[in-house]
Design brief:
The chain is an alpha/beta fold. It has two domains: 13-122, Periplasmic binding protein-like II (D-Maltodextrin-Binding Protein, domain 2, 3-Layer(aba) Sandwich); 126-167, no CATH class. The chain is built from seven helices and five strands. The chain has helices at residues 13-19, 31-38, 56-63, 65-70, 82-91, 102-110, 156-167; strands at residues 26-30, 45-51, 73-79, 96-98, 115-120. A five-stranded mixed β-sheet has the order 3-2-4-1-5. The N and C termini lie far apart (58 Å).
Amino acid sequence: MTGDGMGGSRASRRAFMGTATLSAAALVAGLPARSLLAAGKAPDNVNVAFFLSTHPTMLAKSAGWWEQMADAKITWSEVGSGAEINTAVAAGSVDVGLGIGSSPTAAGISQRIPYEVIAISDNIGPAEDLVVRTAAGIKAPADLRGKKVATPFGSTSHFRLLGLLEKSGLT
């Protein structure tokens, strides 16, 4: 084992794929990488879809630590929602998804998308607040009646918006 520049020992690609993801909001591993690892082989390239967030995973990404730890090329794809990660995993174009979110994860599992949740490390509830223009005059959920509201379909934000509307007696 060699130094990794991160204050510790360099992990094997197998260990990396199994443990380096603990700081992700939610992470899924697709079957192609898992089947290689089960056979005792590490992939030469790992395809990672990520939802931009303020997690240590993004610091590790920008510093190149993922590549160092994996000893592999990592192809990064930024996505706009966890639903996009589900689509990419189902299509076989992504091995690892970071920051997928709880409702897209539940949707993926119920749709039998071939992945496994490895870690969930935080609750982003406060980050899912509803934002409105001051000029709209919206002060309470009831003021949304008759208004148009946008959110990424199939996302945690979508799930929370549906809950708010139902609780407020709106559709």
